[in-house]
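User: Please fill in residues for this 450-position structure.
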């Protein structure tokens, strides 16, 4: 017999965990740098459309399927299907989602490790260990490997604890800290000279870019990545929501927190770039393009911190701790996907499953680190721009066409007697059935035919 399923102890517990998963490097690093590189507010506008009109309904599809089936993401679509073929396709989709989760974790852990390395560099710098501080901040395979292993070990340790003692407990501690640090950093950065130019660049759109096919696909990928969709994370978190808790309001809150933090993080990173430029740090390359995204966080921002004198090292420490925390609440949610599958479908003890799968993913990260130029970019593009939206599309198809309308309604009614009179029930079922899948397909087609 397998162990009883975990469950979040409260709405707040779920919110902290799901927002923790959603809010990560995608919001605080990916989003602002895409904004900066893609016509400023033009990207923001398209992103907001994608997030509210495609990603949010897809998130609801995952949460509802998750709670309805109360099983892991690999088996869930199969569980709601009735015909042989839809069972097979459902299983295949869940499996691809799980592989995507593993691939995402393998590159995400490297990035997260860089954040932790820079935090360590600032900490050692503060206590005067300048040689170590330099090593921690210098880009090398050895450093990447060490910090990826450290980061994955932390992730594994938390996931071994399970839903309440691991995921919920740690997210409930880390998320409030994250929001407080974010606000403190923004208040500080906005007092720097040059920062207001950044605010302007961020908020004034260059509308000529809005129809750029790459921008549209980029914004869709960003929205799915940011809401942790198309890999089964939200489905599995949905399966841990108690039947007392209202799915519609929870899904709405997670979306608003995630989008809100991405938009607010833009107010930190973009003004910081312009403040750096004001202090003589270069932020555009010779061709007038924004310095590529890794350079932005790891050269532009540290260069800004350097120009601040003694306090700069401290601000840098706070900033990179902030990034590491954001990453950690995301990595745990990704690791939960394959672990839940191994525990539930293959009867593996949780600790053993977590260590084995976490170890295998760390190995995959090591392979990426040592073949960085060939693998890193490809893995990111394939998983975030293609796999996630396509698996997300299938989730919508299963929620809209395979799960009976009546089962959907019963699921919503468990926590809200009046669900059928609400706006959500009037719009969402038809929307997720037709408009969402069609819109996701159109976004892809316009890219291929442009
Ligand atoms: N949403 C996370 C971020 O924005 C990344 C993530 C993707 C987490 C997929 C879980 C699953 O950084």
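Assistant: Residues filled in for all 450 positions:
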């Amino acid at each position: 017999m397998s162990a009883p399923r975990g469950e979040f102890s409260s709405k707040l517990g779920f919110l902290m965990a799901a927002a923790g998963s959603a809010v990560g490097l995608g919001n605080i690093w990916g989003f602002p740098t895409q904004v900066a590189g893609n016509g400023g507010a033009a990207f923001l506008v398209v992103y907001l459309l994608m997030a509210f009109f495609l990603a949010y309904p897809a998130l609801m599809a995952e949460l509802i399927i998750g709670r309805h089936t109360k099983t892991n993401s690999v088996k869930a679509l199969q569980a709601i299907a009735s015909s042989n073929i839809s069972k097979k396709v459902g299983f295949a989709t869940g499996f691809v989602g799980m592989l995507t989760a593993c691939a995402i974790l393998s590159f995400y852990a490297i990035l997260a490790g860089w954040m932790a390395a820079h935090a360590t560099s600032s900490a050692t710098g503060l206590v005067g260990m300048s040689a170590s501080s330099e090593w921690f901040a210098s880009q090398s395979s050895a450093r990447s490997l060490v910090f990826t292993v450290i980061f994955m070990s932390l992730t594994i340790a938390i996931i071994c604890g399970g839903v309440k003692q691991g995921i919920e407990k740690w997210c409930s501690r880390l998320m409030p800290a994250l929001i407080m640090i974010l606000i403190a950093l923004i208040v500080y950065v906005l007092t720097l000279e040059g920062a207001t130019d950044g605010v302007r660049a961020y908020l004034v759109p260059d509308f000529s870019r809005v129809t750029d096919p790459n921008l549209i696909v980029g914004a869709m990928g960003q929205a799915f990545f940011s809401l942790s969709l198309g890999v089964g994370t939200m489905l599995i978190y949905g399966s841990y929501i108690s039947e007392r808790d209202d799915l519609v309001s929870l899904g709405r809150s997670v979306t608003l927190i995630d989008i809100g933090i991405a938009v607010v993080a833009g107010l930190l990173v973009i003004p910081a770039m312009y403040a750096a430029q004001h202090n003589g740090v270069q932020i555009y390359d010779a061709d007038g393009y924004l310095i590529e995204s890794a350079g932005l966080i790891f050269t532009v921002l540290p260069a800004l911190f350097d120009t601040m004198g003694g306090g700069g090292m401290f601000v840098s420490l706070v900033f990179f701790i902030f990034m590491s925390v954001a990453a950690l609440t995301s990595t745990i949610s990704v690791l939960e996907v394959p672990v839940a599958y191994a525990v539930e479908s293959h009867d593996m003890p949780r600790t053993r499953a977590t260590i084995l799968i976490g170890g295998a993913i760390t190995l995959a990260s090591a392979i990426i680190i040592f073949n960085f130029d060939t693998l890193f970019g490809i893995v990111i593009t394939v998983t975030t721009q293609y796999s996630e939206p396509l698996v997300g599309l299938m989730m919508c198809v299963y929620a809209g066409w395979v799960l009976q309308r009546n089962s959907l309604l019963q699921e919503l009614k468990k926590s809200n007697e009046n669900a059928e009179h609400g706006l959500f029930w009037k719009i969402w079922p038809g929307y997720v059935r037709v408009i969402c899948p069609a819109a996701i397909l159109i976004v892809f087609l316009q890219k291929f035919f442009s």
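For context: Residues 21-22, 24-27, 104, 225-226, 228, 231, 233, 330, 333-334 surround phenylalanine (CB under 6 Å).
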